[in-house]
Predict the 3D structure of the following.
Amino acid sequence: MHRRTILQLGVACLALGIASPTLADPMAEAKAVVDKYASKVEKWDGPTTGPKGAAGKTIVVLGADMKNGGILGVTKGVEEAAAALGWTVKTLDGAGSIGGRTAAFGQALALNPDGIIINGFDAVEQKPAMEQAKAAKIPMAAWHAAPTVGPIDDLGIIANVSTDPMEVSKAAADWAFVDAKGKPGVIIFADSTYQIAIAKADRMKKEIEDLGGKVLEYVDTPIAETSQRMPQLTTSLLQKYGDQWTHSLAINDLYFDFMGPSLAAAGKSGTDAPISVAAGDGSESAYQRIRSGQFQKVTVAEPLNLQGWQLVDELNRAMAGEKWSGYISPLHVVTSNNVEFDGGPDNRFDPGNGYRDEYKKVWGK
């Protein structure tokens, strides 16, 4: 069965409330998942064939909010890959609002580029503009534009690039379960503005409960407003749950950028509960917190720079009239024990699998 079909079935099962089989040994199974994804990523498992690199193209990156570390990391990867092809990249910032993204998309269409990358927001949000791009035959690729990986045919997207979001969420929840010695009290942070955020948060909740842990609360708060909301929200949740709150699970690292001062003000040290665990994206600030032991022990990182290269490759395929590559990029459970390899010294998950050279070979560069 194709991996995308498996992802779709997983999301469908969550939506229908279909229970997972009872786990024979929850701790052993959770540890196995964590160990699998905490290992080094040294083997290239992506595409080895494809169209030669097109020349002289101009593409536009539409960033949902360039203050988001994941979106910024992907954009840098796009720029690096585009430079290898001799392409021009124009980046437009949606500035964290629907209105901002709508305006940015209008600017992108006015530029009439050779390709567009939807970076970090739900594709359906900008459906009218995307239909215009599709009608104009402007190829589009996306990052985190839907809960599943691969093409979004009705919107004209050749590929939605991501790690397997359900595996990312499962790995984050499994780590929290293991760290809590089988008795986690979890608060989950998500943003219902995004389909992928809902799917990831639901998967974390289900995994914790299937393992036998407890979800204290499911908090829906906007990613774009974390700097304003998270300090007071953290204080309120500490007052409400106290020592019951062992771990925080969030759909990405940005939520944890603004929790530390409130935790410190409550007398918590950087390694005290609640421990922060992010189901994506592997931001620079997350790596720094993990390395220094400051309120975050794990991020389930995505290879943001690699994904930028993949987005450029998918656009190149679309320009040549070919289908998407079928590649689903690897995820990585980053802890203090492995933070120094696979790009860790640069505060990012950058696999040591030679992906840059592999893509250049495909493109004939």
Residues 69-85 form the longest helix (17 residues).
